[in-house]
TrEMBL record:
Entry protein name: dTDP-glucose 4,6-dehydratase
Keywords: Lyase, NAD
Cofactor: NAD(+)
Keyword Lyase: yes
Family: Belongs to the NAD(P)-dependent epimerase/dehydratase family. dTDP-glucose dehydratase subfamily.
Gene Ontology BP terms: nucleotide-sugar metabolic process
Length: 351
């Protein structure tokens, strides 16, 4: 049994679905169901005795103690976070609450639970903290990609809150001996991605005939990884990572935002042509850049490959095709997540 926090979100849900399909070991998912959490992401597990869903907050210490005592997991995989940079600029408070205080509470609950385990279970226990490459800050155009030794230089409230959580996790290993592992991953894309982030936003806006907003000059470079490859990387680290260590996970796919958007438009032109025969690229609109927008992130994932034998299964071309096709095939999911709280937020942003 493992406990997964944030398992109703984008990466967490992909992880839980893949874990149950491929490992078969039971999972307890703890998720607050913020605007980003969606029970429908785990709908295919309804009635499956290997999955238990608990709605709750990782800042709730009593709930964490109770869940750990009741389910006695052999590992915690911690995805729960506020994850959207734009939201962190408009309202950083939730990011500090969940990403910093929440991780602290989870570490404390894990420590107390782990201290009470019998020796053999204590040795096997793992706390895997899922983090981001954004903690390393912005990379100059020709600089080598981020290794695990790169200094932390977070620039947004989101990345600063994740950096703080990474440091807490590290300290709980060095101070208390809690068996932790941390992964820092590049930008994910794939099925179940909430349409506030670049790739699903572009796909859904294109199909809805809306503008495709690009920040600044669109030359911001990100390294992209198909979400299923991130999930396989986390499984590998959980299985074979060295305690207290950090692993960078990335896809060796550096691309400028504008090129990503053009690639998606070309795929949509092929798979679902516009009725007027024009390209979706006509809908591209440049908007004012985000404050403090990092120019480039790039991950050096050679440690994952060299030490743990992991590498991504998808290229960007194969992964983005699967992603666009998934959004074309799952319009009901898109409509569902675009209702309610999300719609209100979008209206406020673009009013
Ligand atoms: P997401 O926003 O899609 O999902 C986050 C989930 O956490 C949601 O289901 C939400 O309901 C839940 N949650 C939020 N606050 C909570 C709380 N207080 N208690 C319990 N649950 C809570 O995020 P994501 O993109 O799936 O990212 C998951 C993790 O991976 C995050 O820690 C993020 O920093 C990290 N990460 C994301 C990316 C990326 O490209 N998306 C890349 C690297 C690392």
């Amino acid at each position: 049994m493992i406990l997964v926090t944030g398992g109703a979100g984008f990466i967490g849900a992909n992880f839980v679905l893949d874990w149950i399909a491929q490992v078969g070991e039971p999972v307890v998912t703890l998720d607050k169901l913020t605007y980003a959490g969606n029970r429908a992401n785990l709908a295919s597990l309804e009635g499956d005795s290997r999955h238990t869903f608990v709605q709750g907050d990782i800042t709730d210490a009593a709930l964490l103690d109770q869940l750990l005592a009741k389910h006695s997991p052999r590992a915690i995989v911690h995805f729960a976070a506020e994850s959207h940079v734009d939201r962190s600029i408009h309202g950083p408070e939730d990011f500090i609450q969940t990403n910093v205080i929440g991780t602290f509470r989870l570490l404390e609950a894990a420590r107390s639970y782990w201290n009470g385990l019998e020796e053999d279970r204590k040795t096997d226990f793992r706390f895997l903290h899922v983090s981001t490459d954004e903690v390393y800050g912005s990379l100059a155009p020709q600089a080598p990609a981020f290794t695990e030794q790169h200094p932390y230089e977070p620039n947004s409230p989101y990345s600063a809150s994740k950096a703080a959580s990474d440091h807490l996790v590290r300290a709980w290993f060095h101070t208390y001996g809690l068996p932790v592992l941390t992964t820092n991953c590049s930008n994910n894309y794939g099925p179940l991605h909430f349409p506030e982030k670049l790739i699903p936003l572009v796909i859904t806006n294109a199909l809805a005939g809306k503008p495709l907003p690009i920040y600044g000059d669109g030359q911001q470079i990100r390294d992209w990884l198909f979400v299923k490859d991130h999930c396989s990387g986390i499984r590998r680290v959980l299985e074979a990572g060295q305690l207290g260590e950090t692993y960078n996970i990335g896809g060796h796919n550096e691309m400028a935002n504008i090129d990503i958007v053009k690639r998606i438009c070309a795929l949509l032109d092929e798979l679902r042509p516009r009725t007027d025969g024009q390209s979706y690229a006509q809908q591209i609109t440049f908007v004012k850049d985000r404050p403090g927008h990092d120019r480039r992130y790039a991950i050096d994932a050679s440690r994952m490959q060299g030490e743990l034998g992991w590498k991504p299964a998808e290229t960007f071309d194969s992964g983005i095709r699967k992603t666009v096709q998934w959004y074309l095939d799952n319009t009901a999911w898109v409509e569902n997540v675009q209702s309610g709280a999300y719609r209100e937020w979008v209206q406020k942003q673009y009013a």
